[in-house]
Write a structure and sequence with these properties.
The structure is a single chain. By secondary structure, the protein is mostly beta strands. The protein is 8% helix and 54% strand. The protein contains two helices and 13 strands. Strand 6 and strand 7 form a beta hairpin.
Length: 146
Amino acid sequence: MTETLHFRVGLAGTYWDKVPKYTILVNDTAYTEGYISEQSGVIQYVEFDADIAEGPCSLKIRLENKHWTDTIQNEDKTEIIKDMLLNIKSVEIDEIDLGNLVYTKTRFVGDDTSRPVLDKCVDLGWNGAWILDFESPFYIWLLENI
């Protein structure tokens, strides 16, 4: 059995030079990718539909193009002066805003395996994937997790 779900993701970039590049995947299939097109801090929405098979699923939002030169620190390296981040502002599935689940049921896994896995991280500061694991049928999972 499959269900078609509509995703609406609110993204923003924090940047001073280069804009963040993102890829959004469901069950490791890329549905959309692009660059933040709004000014730094302004939310843009990305929408798509995905056919989901019953069982375990994942939504991944990846930051793809961070380079160490995108972070500028003060002279004694105690403060970040300028940075490039991908900010996840909201996630809706079938017109239901996931609200706090965006923080409480997610993790961020960096591409650099020496970095720790971060819980409750919605401001992506290095290349990697923000991951929301969920189940299909979606509405049953949602009722069990709200």
